[in-house]
Input
Amino acid sequence: MSAHVPVAARRPAARDERAYARRESLLAIGMLAPAVLFIVLLVGVPFGLAIYYSLHDVTTGGTEVRWVGLRHFGELLRDRVFLRSLGNTVLFTVSTLVTVLVLGTVLAELLMRDFRGKWVVRFLILLPWTAPVALGLIGWLWMLDSVFSPIDWLLREVGLLGSRGAPLGALPNLYWLGDPVLAKVSIVLVNVWRILPLATVIVLAGLNSIPRDVIEQTRVDRAGYFRRLFDITLPMLSPILLVAILFTFVFTFSDMIAIFILTRGGPANMTQTLASHAFFTGILGGNLGRGAAIALFLLPVLAGVSAVLLRLIRRSEVT
Amino acid sequence: MAKLTVRDLHTHFGSVRAVDGVSIDVRDGEFLVLLGASGSGKTTLMRTIAGLEKATSGEVVIGDRVVNGLPPNDRNIAMVFQSYALYPHKSVYRNIAFPLEAVRTDRAKIRERVEWAANLFGIGHLLDRKPRMLSGGERQRVALARALVREPNLFLLDEPLSNLDAKLRHQARHELKKLHGRIGITTIYVTHDQVEAMGLGERVAVMNFGRIEQIGKPSDIYREPANTFVARFMGSPAMNLLLKDGEVIGFHPENFLPVGESFQPGPDAMRLRFLVSGLEDLGADLLLYGQVPGADTSPMGEATEVIAKLPARLAGELEVGREHEFFVRERFVKRFDAATGKRVGAPAAA
Output
């Protein structure tokens, strides 16, 4: 009798265990499914479609689809607007990245300190993030208007613009979005304005994660501000700073909202980027095949840079 | 190296008086222990000396210089935090070298000093490691080496042994004392552990509520406590306190002895009945817990048992649950004012 009991008891236990394991794996599949579905439908399908389009002559004007091989890509490499778009994309991304990193670190340092009216500053810094992108950009459109720009008004009032011998010229306006150089500056400015809050919050979180003892130790060890910043704070921040870089990079590199609303790629395609050029060519211009080919140029850069950054993040976390 | 003078120092945080009027003179090369429970203000006092907290009033003088307005960078002090605060991304070598790099020392000199400091603590073989690859004891040595690598005026240690396990702590305490003997830097050491304070300090300052209750040689503080707070704080087990005939009397457990063959009460001994309620055999010592019938054992509000500490060989002679005749020699009996807790009829301890 006593020998039977454990055997009899073990059987249902083993069955329970199998049932439990099956339930576990069902649960796992159930939990993963939405994410997998999401990636397949919203990333995989459009991506496959883009490759298909780029190798065919597809337009919005007809239903005919003709295989053209790599012809779109070949044409693009001889297209000056495309090459300028490529250059602009890199230029905008790098300038935005550098400015956001410097300003984000400075602002985060500022917000680490205690001072009167800190909540106002924090509120103002986070404000651009809470505003809808399109709304914020329309605000900027007005700020940079060729006639009513408040920035120009301010410059005129302080005597930097609009009078004979003024340092910024005698014309009443700077024509921010009409001048090729100023239009590029404007795009970077607006991108920085949009991404800075997020970057500041990320860096602030990183700064808060550095133990207070370590910072106090550097003061006792007689380190000055810049040694503390470059030798202790930034290296200890690097994992999280790389996350901020990755976000900023991906956002700006593939963004076209700012260009679509502010300049529409103008003047004379001077501010066109890969994303906006692809949109104007493929959707508005109707040449889907060529638009897809332009957009595909984003892929190797985004994938490559993301891979490198993720590797760096992992390495700096381990050490 | 330098002497340290603290004059009527106050450090308040809003309405909290963390340091509430402290004056100390620390001689050049002295080892002073600040002893107190958590919240007694000992760490704030040290941090104010370091310049990490701003003094509300009073003066901190290092050497001949009033340093109140100076940031920590300009005080030439070294400090070891309880957490050790090693720089996690730097190797042990770069950690120790950091205070030298911060004041732009040339490379050869840095190498020489780092090797000196590393050898002092026996961590020469660890120089290429990162802090996360070190044990607790090794981290503590790295922190000490980093603190001593540049000759500081003042060496501040904030509970540096509390993260070590008990055995290692014992050894580290001994080594710290030897080290101080060799280097002789003026040292302030903060701890809540009175055994550590007794073992390490040339002088001990007992702190409570932001003030210094008593400052003096460890043995003096132990034998001649200035008030009932110090009496209850020092020693493990602490001094017994009883309310008897309108005054508080105190005596140490090791001076509370049974009348018998082993111990003869002299003519001046104070005799007490002792009802033993518990017994602890610690190997070398025997601890007896109990009550003295007719005496109030809660003169300061907290009810405590009277403890006697005897040699273990007496284990067989004393029975739990019975009353025994005990005595204390008159010179070991300390008397305190029942109202204020201050010592009466004793040499005022310095």
Summary: Chain A has a mean pLDDT of 85.
